[in-house]
Amino acid sequence: METVLAFIIIFGALVFFHEFGHFLFAKRAGILVREFAIGMGPKILGLTKGETVYTLRLLPIGGYVRMAGEDMDTIHLQAGHRIGVLLDKDGLAKKIIMNQKTMYPDILFMEVEEADLEKELYIKGYDEDDQFVRIGVARDAVVEENGKETILAPYDRQFDSKSLGHRFMTILAGPLFNFILAFFIFTAIGLMQGIPTNEPVITEVTEDSPAAEAGMQNGDLVTEIDGKAIGSWNELVEAVQDNAGNPLPFKVERDGQPLDFTITPEVSEQSPEKVGVIGVLYRSPLEKDVLGSFAYGAEQTVFWFKEIFRLLGMLVTGQFTIDALSGPVGIYKTTEEVAKYGIFTLMSWAGMLSINLGIMNLLPLPALDGGRLMFFILEGIRGKPVDRQKEGMVHFVGIMLLMLLMIVVTWNDIQKFFF
Fold it and tell me: Mean pLDDT over residues 351-368, rounded?
């Protein structure tokens, strides 16, 4: 149950902040947001506030912000439709009823001859007395059909009506907020737990390791490797990892005395790539530092951004196979393992996942945020948007391929963890 709760909280927070980025920038651009959804599939809970319905859905595999003008959202009244209209005090249509069986006081029934519910906002047609009438439509009018009400979206409230810059930022904001969330998670870890001093001090030397054979001991301070000054543990790790099989001269201090060692890093058996290790462990002492915590949050965000991007490059170049990918099942099982090491390790895992989600969504693939951003860039170069039908077809194919990939990855996870 603890793992289930941890998974729901982490996954829910990542999706919420991602979609909140889209939502916030859409609102700032004046776009009508019809729905803010966490999860996919059947609706579990729904709350309407203002012009947006906030929903919680059954499947914890994502979320979405549904904006006016997207996905066949536009409402059309065709010639010959018989509708009912309720007027406000200014004589404008405030409600358009598609089901004539619904009765309201003072309702006006009419047969539509022509209507524009996007730009000029009017309905023309014949009333019950066969008189021709033209009725203006309120900007916040509601269309009711089969008991379901939909707020009218004038063209200037639709996504496609906004400038290229506003549309670009509305889509970019989702991944951007994932990076911001990661920064705040790592900063919170620093504020609550303290930040590591990151000094290149050897905490423990493992038996029969290259470091032990060379004579290195617990407490040694590494000052130089291969002629390069070492000021942090990260620099030590980088120097060792990049030199698997190459003899490296080390300069260390032990009780204030300088010592020299030559250590040859061996290839790690735990890494799919050729990474050098010398068999030393590090547990940095922690210190409380408010300003340092914000710097730590930024450093960790940048570090994991580079690391995930590097691993992604290995996948693209074939150094990883598709079996190395994980879907929701794999993430759940890893969360179960990470949770055993405490709340701060779990928070670090959440920060890394948030960066991963942001990067994945920025990939220039159809149906992802990155794919849509590529179409916006193409629009900027061409000076006009790509045909919506063609773009929609590309995104549809992309969704199908992503669903297929999700099925394959999930099946691999099930095989890996349960069989």
Answer: 90
Mean pLDDT of 155-183: 95
pLDDT, residue 309, reads: 85
DSSP reduced 3-state for 119: coil
Residue 334 pLDDT > 90, yes or no?
no
| Residue whose token pair is 């379901």 | 148
For residue 185, pLDDT over 90 is answered with yes
Q: Residue 250: is its pLDDT beyond 90?
A: yes
Length of the chain, in residues: 419
What mean pLDDT do residues 286-304 have? Answer: 90
CA-based max dimension of the chain: 106
Strand, helix or coil at 302?
A: helix
Identified catalytic residue from 2, 19, 70, 144: 19
Average pLDDT over residues 69-94: 84
**In angstroms, rounded to a whole number, what is the distance separating the alpha carbons of residues 75 and 118?**
9
Q: How far apart are CA 181 and CA 170, in angstroms?
A: 17
Provide CB contacts within 8 A for 406, sequence distance 6+.
61, 327
- For residues 308 and 355, is the Cβ–Cβ distance under 8 A? yes
Distance CA 226, CA 258 (A): 15
Residues 265 and 278: beta-carbon distance below 8 Å: yes
Q: Could you give the 3-state DSSP secondary structure of residue 79?
A: coil
Active site residue 19: yes
Q: Which residues sit opposite 144 in a β-bridge?
A: 97, 149
Q: What is the C-alpha separation between 214 and 280, in angstroms, rounded?
A: 12
Q: Tokens at residue 115, please? A: 């209507």
Q: What is the predicted pLDDT for the residue at 149?
A: 84
Residue 21: closest CA among 174, 181, 178: 174
Whole-number Å distance between alpha carbons of 338 and 282: 19
- Burial category of 149 from C-beta neighbours within 10 Å (exposed 0-12, middle 13-18, buried 19 and up): exposed
- Determine the pLDDT at residue 272: 57
Kindly provide the b/e burial profile for residues 278-294, where b requires at least 16 CB atoms within 10 angstroms of the residue's own CB. Answer: bbbeeebeeeeeeebbb
Mean pLDDT confidence for 302-329 = 77
How many whole angstroms separate alpha carbon 102 and alpha carbon 112? 18
String of b and e for 93-111 (b: at least 16 CB within 10 Å)?
bbbbbbeeeeeeeeebebe
